[in-house]
Every structure is written in C-alpha cells, then in structure tokens.
Amino acid sequence: MAENQRPNPAFEKESIIMQHGIFALLVGTLNNQIQVKYQSIKASPFDSHDVTMSAFLLALFVYATASVAEVMLRARESLYSTLVGNLRLFASALAAILLLSILAPILGVRYFGRMGLFIYANRL
C-alpha cells in the first residue's frame, strides 16, 4: 500500500463489529416481518419463494464463511482481508435484499436493479 493512502475505515475492527450488529438486527427484523406475513397462510416462504430462500441461505453461508476468513486473514495481516471483507459486505447486502424481496417484491426488484447498476458503474 502506498504511504499516502489511508486504510479504509470500513475495515477497522470496531467498524466490522458494528456491521455485524447491523446485519443481525436487519435480518432479525426482516425475519420477524416474514413470520407475521406468513402467520395466517398455510404455506411457508420455502413453498412460495423457494429460489429466493435458497439464494438467501447461500448468501448467508457466504457471509458467515467470509466473516471467519476475514478474521483469520486479518490476524495474518494478509492483503486479501480487504477482498474477503468486500465479499462479506456484498453477501450481507444480497441476503437483506433477498429477504426484502419476499416481503415486498417490487422493492426487491428495485434494489436488485440498483445493486446491478452500482456493480456495473464500478467495474474495473
């Protein structure tokens, strides 16, 4: 890293702990809202949104794996910890959008579009 560049504050220890807390709160809140929505319906979200729920579980698995890998790489002071941190952030955003798309499909489609435009605009 060049000497004139400052490290990204999003990947400092306190910031990462805060991001985990926000993600846990967001997923917990969306999960409770989905439970309320499907309370009076006999079907579960896995019946009506099987692809979305499977993608959510995959994104959640990637988030958990990337979180552990990031801690291990930070302990070794590896340059790849930033890459894994970005993967963790992407997986957490994807998981939240997938849960949101179960609650309000139009909002999920809108945020998927914004996420795609963001990725397209920031490609290398």
Description:
Keywords: Membrane, Transmembrane, Transmembrane helix. The protein has about 120 residues and is mainly α. The chain has one domain (about 10-120). Helices cover about 75% and strands about 0% of the residues. Helix 3 (about 50-75) packs antiparallel against helix 4 (about 80-105). The mean pLDDT is about 80.
Alpha plus pi helix count: 5
Q: What is the typical, i.e. mean, pLDDT? A: 82
**Overall spatial form:** globular
Q: Poorly predicted ranges (pLDDT <50, ≥5 residues)? A: none
Element-level helix/strand string: HHHHH
The secondary-structure class comes to mainly alpha
**Structural domains: how many:** 1
Please give the largest β-sheet: none
Distance between the termini: 18 Å
Number of strands: 0
Helix content: over 70%
Strand content: under 5%
Radius of gyration: 17 Å
Give the oligomeric state of the chains in this entry, treating copies of one chain as homo and distinct chains as hetero: single chain
List keywords for this structure.
mainly alpha, 5 helices
Topology:
Blueprint: H1 13-37, H2 45-48, H3 50-75, H4 81-103, H5 105-121
Helix pairs in contact: 1-4, 3-4, 4-5
InterPro entries: Ca-permeable_cation_channel
Keywords: Membrane, Transmembrane, Transmembrane helix
